[in-house]
């Protein structure tokens, strides 16, 4: 490893490696530093029955697209890992794995110094351009009252869940109804476990509507390509949890009301707890109603798109509730309910404390435009809503990476190393 590299990409997942693909194509000397392995997040942080929730045709990376037999299907975890490894075989990325960047700071006014912690110990490297590709929210969130709960109850975060067999016998409480929480609750439910589910404010969407996958309709409607500043609903829409749905068994809706009819126990927002007692806000009815309203609203948007273009499609429909909560439970006794495990599926938070640069807002989020910050030479890739709703997804990574790489090439200017014309 040289002591100075023009560009260092921190993070060797699909986003960071997409920037690397473009830099290599332009002849830019660079280094990609990855704390684990290139496919670690997919291979080691997804449960056994995980599937994509976006159709396979969304899977696009630089120079590489899904070409399998089921473009409208949903790859499993292992299929995604195999697909990514196939992409990695198409180019030679300067990737250093099992090495963590523990500090990034500005030196000499126009260079960055990175402190690396790898298998052979600590090292440093300097660069002119640094690309942060560590993901938008790397730290799992656990509520502050979790340590006060009965120590006999097994607690894990959703990223640590793989299958029902890893949990102690007994009922399971899943907290959170984003994409991970609802799908993990379904996984446990299908395995015959008694599931209790604390319902949050995530919206939901139909899997298929009027003959096509809803996400295919939304792509045709341009929703994944609309710049963030033009997106309907503005910042409020961007702050919402992604709509819950599943690609399991070919894809289907996730209907929490139907789960309740089948024996799953639903509660409102979990507010606090101690020992064996948990308390909930009276939000269950409202949360279910709002999720269904979003579901039907999206269907209405698709209807208007179909009508405006005269598309031949099956007739419209709307979701009608199959179950209504008889009450909003206020408390839950873990011991009395036989709950032996809790899975926290309430998200992640940012952690950029290792970056010494004035590039973050009061909440610790990067201040950037299409990945480019006001700090010369510092950029980001792979953030949710970095440019569009498609940012951070397979569908939008290629475009975002190309933009960031082009900015880097232009910034290096006449001093750029071995620059070749982009093809």
UniProtKB/TrEMBL annotation:
The entry's keywords: Oxidoreductase
Gene3D superfamilies (alphabetical): FAD/NAD(P)-binding domain (3.50.50.60)
Claim: Cell cycle is one of the keywords in the record: no
Pfam families documented for this protein: Pyr_redox_3
Superkingdom of origin organism: Bacteria
Protein name, UniProt field: Oxidoreductase
Organism for this UniProt entry: Gordonia paraffinivorans NBRC 108238
């Amino acid at each position: 490893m040289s002591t100075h590299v023009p560009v260092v990409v921190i993070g060797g997942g699909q986003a960071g490696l997409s920037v690397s693909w473009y830099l290599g194509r332009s002849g830019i000397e660079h280094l990609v530093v990855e704390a684990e392995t290139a496919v670690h997040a997919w291979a080691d942080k997804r449960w056994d029955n995980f599937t994509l929730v976006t159709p396979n045709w969304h899977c696009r990376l630089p120079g590489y697209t899904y070409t399998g037999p089921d473009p409208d299907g949903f790859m499993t975890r292992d299929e995604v890992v195999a697909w990514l490894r196939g992409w990695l075989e198409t180019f030679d990325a300067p990737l250093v794995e099992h090495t963590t960047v523990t500090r990034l700071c500005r030196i000499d006014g126009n260079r960055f110094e990175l402190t690396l912690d790898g298998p052979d110990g600590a090292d440093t490297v300097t660069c002119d351009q640094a690309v942060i590709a560590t993901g938008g929210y790397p730290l799992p969130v656990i509520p502050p009252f979790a340590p006060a709960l009965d120590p006999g109850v097994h607690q894990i975060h959703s990223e640590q869940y793989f299958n029902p067999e890893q949990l102690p016998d007994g009922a399971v409480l899943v907290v959170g109804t984003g994409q991970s929480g609802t799908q993990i609750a379904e996984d446990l439910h299908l395995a015959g476990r008694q599931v209790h589910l604390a319902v949050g404010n995530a919206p939901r969407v139909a899997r298929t509507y009027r003959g096509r996958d809803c996400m295919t309709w939304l792509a045709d409607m341009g929703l994944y390509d609309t710049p963030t500043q033009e997106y309907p609903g503005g910042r409020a829409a961007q702050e919402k949890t992604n709509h819950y749905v599943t690609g399991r068994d070919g894809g289907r809706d996730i209907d929490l009301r139907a789960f309740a009819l089948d024996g799953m126990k639903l509660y409102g927002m979990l507010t606090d707890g101690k020992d064996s007692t948990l308390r909930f806000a009276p939000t269950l009815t409202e949360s279910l109603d709002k999720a269904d309203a979003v579901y039907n609203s999206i269907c209405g948007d698709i209807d208007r798109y179909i009508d405006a273009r005269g598309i031949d499609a099956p007739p419209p429909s709307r979701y009608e509730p199959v179950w209504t909560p008889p009450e909003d439970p206020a408390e839950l006794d873990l011991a009395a309910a036989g709950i032996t495990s809790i899975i926290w599926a309430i998200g992640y938070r940012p952690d950029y404390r290792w970056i010494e640069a004035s590039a973050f807002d009061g909440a610790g989020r990067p201040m950037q435009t299409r990945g480019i910050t006001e700090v010369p030479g510092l950029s980001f890739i792979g953030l949710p809503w970095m440019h569009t709703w498609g940012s951070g997804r397979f569908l939008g990574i290629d475009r975002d990476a190309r933009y960031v790489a082009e900015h880097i090439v232009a910034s290096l200017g006449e001093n750029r190393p071995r620059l070749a014309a982009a093809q």
